[in-house]
Amino acid sequence: MKAIDMHCDTIQKIYQHPQTTLRENAFQIDLLKMKASGTTLQNFAMFVPLDEVEDPYKTCREMISCYQRELSANADLIRPITTMQEFEENQQKGRLSALLTMEEGAPLEGRLDRLQEFYDLGVRMLTLTWNFKNELGYPNMLYWDEQTQTLSNEQKGLTETGIRIVQKMEELGMIIDVSHGSDQLVRDVLAHTTKPFVASHSNARTICHHPRNLPDELIQQIAERGGVIGINYYEDFIRPEGNQQSLVAGLVKHIKHFRAVGGIDCIGLGSDFDGIEENEELADIRAIEKIEQGLRDAGFSTDEIEKIFYRNVERLYTTCFS
User: InterPro entries, per this entry (predicted)?
Assistant: First the structure.
């Protein structure tokens, strides 16, 4: 079955290991595995870990150059897209598609001209925060509070700069991604924007109580906005520590919960491959067939599975890129 994956960190792996290629590698995603899996469109995130890099902007630009080199070298298999018309053309010609995204807002340094710069480079989705506070807002993780000089997880959301950035993103046609963001950040995005947005790689907190997962309140509101939430394959976000349930069964449980809370139209895929630890059960992108079978075994119809695998994301991209 066709599939669209809203999140992976494969380009960071290739950037860190320049002897490797996107075409074929030992990572969780490469182009040959992607083609074998039925995945027609992969979001490639430029993941900038603030605890490891000195200059987020420089690192992000270097990663984009890496991405561009890999796509140019493999133009027989994959082409970048910035519109759904380009995606349709790639499908008609039997090519894979790549969507350039960013995971971390710090390279913007809070500047609207930087946002325009990255848009002009082809970025069509931005994860506002990773695990650290930046100029745009706060994550759903512990952060250093300068006022109290302590680690805190107090619910702070978008900054004033962040509000300006998300409003400009809507104007440009760049999709807002709230994965990693605090609950309040998601509420602030809802309050200051009007278009659908995504949580590209997040699960349900009711099923697995982890701060990176979404509470029911926000699942429902993202769904009501017409947004899509990408199911994350990371073990710690799927099942509580000590739970020995299979990962596929766990993912199906999250998907059932999303369907019950937000409806089938809010669910997508966001593997987080090459940003998560290897697991034998979900070894690489080809494991998607296990998820399809798990959903069928749980009584999901072909229509529902198609929505989860690609149609919901196609709908959202068509809306947001227009």
Answer: Metal_Hydrolase (IPR032466), Pept_M19 (IPR008257)
User: Mean pLDDT over all residues of the chain?
Assistant: 96
Overall size of the chain counted in residues: 322
* pLDDT score for 148: 72
Q: Is the pLDDT of residue 240 over 90?
A: no
User: Which two tokens mark 247?
Assistant: 């990962």
**DSSP-assigned letter for residue 232:** P
* 3-state SS class at 125: strand
Question: Do β-strands 78-80 and 96-103 pair in parallel, antiparallel, or remain unpaired?
Answer: parallel
CATH says 3-321 is which class? alpha beta
Dihedral of CA 147/148/151/157: which sign? negative
The pLDDT value given to residue 147: 75
Cβ-contact 322, 314 below 8 angstroms:
no
Q: In this structure, what are the phi and psi dihedrals at residue 236, rounded to the nearest 5 degrees?
A: -65, -20
Residue 153's pLDDT is 62
Q: What angle do CA 75, 79, 81 make, to 5 degrees?
A: 165
**Alpha helices in 26-178, H assignment, sequence order:** 31-37, 56-73, 84-92, 112-120, 160-172
In the chain, beta strands by DSSP E: 3-5, 39-47, 78-80, 96-103, 123-127, 143-145, 150-152, 175-177, 198-199, 228-231, 267-269
